[in-house]
Amino acid sequence: MLLGIELLVLAAIAMAAGLLGSLAGIGGGLVLIPILVVFVGVPFPEAVGASALTIIATSTTAGATFVEDRLTNVRVGMLLEIATVPGAFAGAAFVIYATRSGLTSLLLIALGVVLLATVPGTLLLLRGKSRPPIEPDALSRRLGLGGSYFDRRQDREIAYTAGRTTPAFAVMFGAGIISGLFGIGGGVLKVFALDRALGLPIKVSTATSNFMIGVTGAAGVSLLIGAGYVEPLLTAPLVLGSVLGSYVGTRLLPGLSNQSIRLLFVPVLILFAAELILRGVGLP
Amino acid sequence: MSAVPLPAQEPHSLPPGTTHQMAHLLRFGLGLAVAILCVGVLRALIDGTGLNFGGFDAVANHMAFDLSSTGSYLLGGNGAGIAAFGLLVLVATPVARVAYGVYGFWRAKDPMLARIAAVVFGLLLVGLFALGPLLR
Q1: Which range has the top average pLDDT, A237-246, B2-11, B56-65?
Q2: B51 and chain A: CB distance < 8 Å anywhere?
Q3: How many angstroms separate the CA of residue A281 from the nearest CA in chain B?
Q4: Interchain contact, A225 vs B66, CB within 8 Å
Q5: Is the ipTM above a cut-off of 0.85?
Q6: Which DSSP state fits A159?
Q7: Is residue B93 within 8 angstroms of chain A, CB to CB?
Q8: Do A58 and A22 contact (CB within 8 A), yes or no?
Q9: In chain A, at which residue ranges do the beta strands (DSSP E only) sit?
Q10: Inter-chain contact A3–B33, Cβ cutoff 8 Å?
Q11: Is the Cβ of B125 closer than 8 Å to some Cβ of chain A?
């Protein structure tokens, strides 16, 4: 039956994206949305909606574990969601506007540029260097945004402070826009803000970024659902496949080196980016 | 580099029980959504109806759904309707996590963070019930 094959193909694509994304420590959306748009022929807003729903699903499992392990700084996450949610609204609204105005090529080029920009950020973040603490600003002190977590490798509780909230808000708003525009988690940008502006430890930054991805994705996709750009039978197998792929990636293959997988991941991102930009400017 | 003093306020003021319940809520929401999506996809496979692989245009194919139409869509009992309901459960999961955060911070006697979580919750409701339909 044709429908069965279609659903299986979609689930397999999403599973591969989820697997690759979790192994590389990068959201599967970065891989999924170019495949959907370029190779499967899904219209841009439907691909964004489907991708956003897959990242909600894949971030939820890890997010729950990080919250339980107290790696997530829930206070910082909640606070900065005030910036990511309006950013996601703005991004998703622009996708709807651009689609209805015939500006899809602009979205393709922008996605290509974002993929290219992700490459150095991804490689830099993976070093996971520890940094000196940043002096907390007034809001950070008032809200008690610092925290502590138990580091299993060092076998001790590690306390940390949270530094500058204003630049963190600005970068998070940008991360929200990116997430709403392309249905991706924007984790690289979120971790950047948490690491560079607030000075959180890299493990806490990663966990807190993951915590925020679901809410940011829900904000963007709520506009796309309302505007009629989510197709259930396209999205359902993608969500199921990505959950399975991410489960396999995180549970069954822990021995693989993230760094080497990321190095393999980089040329894929560059190829996708080049294809998107070429399509956007009208070249075959 | 001079030592930076830790904030005076005790961090992670959510009680451990609350964070565990928040984690359970996330897992339950995802599990429920996945189960409903599986039923929807299986139903679509059995019915053999639905997807137009050559053109995934939800609007043109009349496959799009929204909050107001999901009830009747679901009652129709077809695969797409059940899948649409599963997707709404999925979207509702992080929204419910924020709502639980309001309760958790309020219970932890942290009114400022409870208010912040309430603002995020309000923004999400505006997106779901006001901004989305406005863009239809």
Answers
A1: A237-246
A2: yes
A3: 22
A4: yes
A5: yes
A6: E
A7: yes
A8: yes
A9: 147-151, 156-160
A10: no
A11: no
Tokens encoding B119 = 């603002």
B5 contacts in chain A (CB < 8 Å): 161
Phi, psi of A160 (to 5 degrees): -145, 160
- Reported in sequence order, the residue ranges of A7-136 that DSSP labels E, i.e. its strands, are none
Q: Which residues of A152-167 are buried (b: 16+ CB within 10 A; e: fewer)?
A: eeeeeeeebbbbbbee
Which is more confident, B70 or A40?
Answer: A40
Residues 6+ apart with CB under 8 A from B94: A56, A60, A214, A215, A217, A218, B26
Strand partners, A158: A149
Whether residues A41 and B54 touch (CB distance < 8 A) is answered with yes
Rounded Cα–Cα distance for residues A176 and A188 (Å): 12
**Contact present, B97 and B22 (Cβ < 8 Å):** yes
Q: Which residues from A are below 8 Å from B112, CB to CB?
A: 142-143
First to last CA, chain B: 55
B99 close to A (CB below 8 A): no
Output the six-digit token pair for A281.
Answer: 């400017």
Q: Which residues of B touch A86 (CB under 8 A)?
A: 123
Nearest neighbour of B27 by CB, restricted to A64, A86, A217: A64
Q: Name the band, by pLDDT with cuts 50, 70 and 90, for residue A130.
A: low
Q: Are the C-beta atoms of A32 and A54 separated by less than 8 Å?
A: yes
End-to-end CA distance of chain A: 33
Q: Which residues pair with A149 in a beta bridge?
A: A158
